[in-house]
Each structure stands twice: as structure tokens, then as C-alpha cells.
Amino acid sequence: MKTCMLVLTALPLALAASAAGAQSPKTPWGHPDLQGTWSNATLTPLQRPLELKDKEFFTAEEAKAYVKQRLAAQSGDENIEKDKATGNVGSYNDAWMDRGNDIVPTRRTSLIVEPKTGRVPPFTAEAQQQFAREQAYAATHPADTPEDRYLTERCIGFGGGHAPMLPEPYNNNYYIVQTKDYVSILAELNHEVRIIPLDGRAHFPAGVTQWVGDSRGKWEGDTLVVETTQTKPNRHYYGVQMLDSVMSDKFRVVERFTRTAPDQIRYQATVYDAVFTTPWTVEIFMHPQKGEIVEYACHEGNYGMRGLLSAAREEEKKATEGKR
Question: Which residues does residue 282 pair with via DSSP β-bridges, in sequence order?
């Protein structure tokens, strides 16, 4: 009888091990295989809407209703018609957008999972004062130079091209390549490539900064853990998900990539910075995509920036003439 029980209890363990192996494909050298083209497009917002208060998860029915509402509210076609009616230039229509067609599979109400509020934590008192000063300056100097504009407008960086990798309204695709010693992540938007060493080397010397920071990786079991430091501080760093913030030279991000299924990577990233009262963590799920990634040809010499600055000068000229 004991022998029979041993066989019966071992069988599910063997099946579980087989299932785990199927869920986590391996490279020839034994690391979990993260390679290929992936997308993190999702309708789940970065921060939990205030009206949802302490609601962390939707029910299945609530999720369906929320997806329907989000798709209607974010319709580029509808917004263009509204812009026409008010005389605005307008933006892209739905043919350009790719926010996804569903929320995250956990049905969370925000990508932020910590703190439990589902929102970016408050600034420290000192950071709040800095933020207020920068906002006041931006209100009176919106376009004196290109440096006054968002990194996205300057084609320097978008939310998905650096850590944390936050979804944008479109072009949320990534191409991952692995070797024994490196992992490379190409972000479609704005075609940044992060080359992440896995050999334990130290970060850059203090004072050396980059727009995408300095990333170093290691494997912890089946999870790729990437630490990024020495990111060049900028109040427009987070792309369109969080347009204005403050950053310090203590900004650090720890990312975790886990292949949880053949068609899924669970991506978690924790942001540590002295400007926040507590760290905050996002959880996003990436899914495979067919086809190749086409170059996103945004560059600093684009006509949009030239037009934006010249329009600002024209508005200033009109304002001066109106005072005469």
C-alpha cells in the first residue's frame, strides 16, 4: 500500500516538473530563453484611477466593462473629430495606435502593484518643492529651447526604451537577444538598445551618466534580474505615462524578467529614488509578436521640434504686439 501511495504522489510532481520545463524554454547553455519579439501593450493604466480607491482587482465582468470603456475613451478617431470641432490641429488616429485590446491577465486595476494604493508614492517635502519650482518655470518658459521640451518630442527617449519599461500609446514592441554573457533589449520606441552584461562587472564610475542608464544583469534561478543606475536625471523621463516628475542621481531600477509560459514574460520593475517617500513597483506582462520590428526613425533634427519652437516665438511676438 505504501508503494502504491508513493507512486501516486510522485506522478503529479513529475507532471509539474514537465509542465514547468514546457513553460520555461531554455537556451542551449541552460538559461531561460527570453529571445524573440515581445509586446507589453496593455489597457491597464500605470496608476489606479482615483475613483477605484482601494480596489486592486477587477472581477471578470468588471474587466470586460472596463476594457470596453477604455477602448471607447481612447479612440483616436473620436478625438480627431473633437479636435476638428474645436479648431485644434489634432493627433494620430486609431490606425497609428497600439495600446492593446485587454488589461493585464491578473485583472489588476493598475500596473503599479506596490504601494497598495496602485499609485506613484508622494514626493518627499524637498522633492515636492523642487517639483513646484520646475512646474512654475515650465509654465512661463514652455519652449525657450529644446531642453524645455519633453524627451519624447526631442526624440531622445520614450517610456519603453529604458528602465522601467512602461507602455506607450503605440510601438510597444521589444526584440530580445541572448548569449551566455549578455542580454540585449531593443525597444521599438525610440529604437534604443540596452546591452546588459551578465559577467558581474561593476557599474560605471560615479558621475558617468546615460539617458538609458547603466544596466547590469544576473540570473536568480529562472529570473533575469537587471539593475540600472546612473541614469541622467530629467523631469520628463517617464514618457507619456507620467509626464512630469523629478529625479535625483540616486535613481535606481531593479527589473525582473521571468518566462512564466511559452507565450508570456512577467516583467516586474522597482523604482528606487530619494525623491519618493517609498519605492514603487510595476508588474507588466509581455506577449510574443509575429513579424519583424521596423525602425522607428525619430531623431533630434526632426521638423516637429523646429515647428514647435518657431510657433512659440510667433506666439511671443503676437503677445508683445498686443501690449503696444
Answer: 112, 269
